[in-house]
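Tutorial, part two.
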Amino acid sequence: MSKKSPSKKRKIKVIITEDQKIFRQALRSYLEEEKIDVIAEAENGKVLLEQLFTKKLKPDVVVLDLEMPVMDGGEALVAIRKVDKNLKIVMLTYIDNKDVIQEMKRNGVNAFLDKNNELDDVVDVIRQLYDEIEFTNLADDIKPKFTKLEQEII
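Running the prediction step on this input gives:
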């Protein structure tokens, strides 16, 4: 996945949503070393939604943990998509369940990353989403199936 992309001149703005404080802080530190601006952190989906809709923070990308207390990443994803279809969202998880991944894809997640990936992979995905480079990191057997008409339209 470590394909470098030509990120635009402006720093990429990111919100990290992760319940494990050490993981969240380590990710923040690494992203900032890579010249990505972490504008906020959230320990659950509810805090993320408050930052997006009450404080009106405008990230380019949200890094969103799937499993969290209070409000998990799946619930936060659905709430975000009701208001903003264009915000780029990277889901972080240990879950390797095709049904869960398909559900998140249907709900509008832009990319999935296993928490065992390298930190460089997180940076690469954030930059690719920011640069609007078309990619998927979903296996072929879980990509959405399109009808012939849908394929022609696409």
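The longest helix spans residues 21-33. In part three we will examine how such features are distributed along the chain.
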